[in-house]
Amino acid sequence: MSEDGRTPDRAPSMADVAQVAGVSHQTVSRVLNDHPNVRPQTRAAVLSAIEQLGYRRNSAARALVTRRSGVLGVVTTGSALYGPSSTLLGIELAAREHGYVVTVATVTSFEPATMSATVEQFLEQRVEGIIVVAPQVDATRAILELGAPVPIVMVSSSSVDARGAGASAVRSVGVDQVAGGRLATEHLLGLGHRDVLHVAGPQDWFDARARLVGWRAALDAAPGATGELVQGDWTADVGYELGLRLVREGLPSAVFAANDQIALGMLRAFWERGVVVPRDVSLVGFDDVAGADHFIPPLTTVRQDFVALGRRALAATDAMVTGGEPDSSPLVPELVVRASTARPA
Length: 345
Prior knowledge:
A six-stranded mixed sheet has the order 2-1-3-4-6-5, with helices on both faces. Strands 8-7-9-10 form a four-stranded parallel sheet. Strands 11-12 form a two-stranded antiparallel ribbon. The chain has twelve helices and twelve strands. The chain is 43% helix and 14% strand. By secondary structure, it is of the alpha/beta class.
């Protein structure tokens, strides 16, 4: 038995903390819950006892008292893409700051049965809210059909505002992707380019759809401007193959790639075939992935603050959980001009 009366194999309890600090069990509880009516010297004694004993709060017991679990569920696709992974990082950082624990479920299918099973798993863990980092059409459709009994926040550029009964509500937070598409295209048009090709991302992603809308809007607003649409995905492989094709069939004046990975593949293809960027063709990406400033040449791109997006998603979820009104206003992207764009030769 230890000096404080505990058996060595038993974790310290709140009663042990009270005994070491020389206070009541209720006083320890007040300190743990940051109650204002505790004298500074008493609070210091309790905190010292907690550190001495290595006491950790029993989250299950706390949940019984507060009727809150402090747990949030996050659904992801397990994608290694820069945007979703960076957004998840922002969510986890903000969760710790707000006192939440995050449990993550990775799904590879958005079939109703899969999403229903995922949500049911979360509910068994008594989550207070769910964040879905899957800005795809099928994911949104499946979530809206669920009618989950807890608030859900979709990280998506598609505006979702489904206000169900009680806690059953779905909202969305995102980046203004249409504005981002316009920024990229208007930059090229402003340099004097009149032929802007767009390599679009997969159209089952809301972000890809919105960037395409921004590209078209910018072209429509510029007299005499033209542009070809080429369907792609998010990979550098597709960018590389398309770059080779453009060299064979004829280069446009400028290219707006739906993400930086596509742009990276195109840069490789152009380099292999002796095409000089931006002398022969200007190129803009999207996302500002880590290292985009070290591409050859450094890539002009549209920057999204994914960590801020994750924080916005967490804040919106917290607001819905606590009965407040979430901030659903879109974040504004930023154009970052580097050496891959210039006036046409």
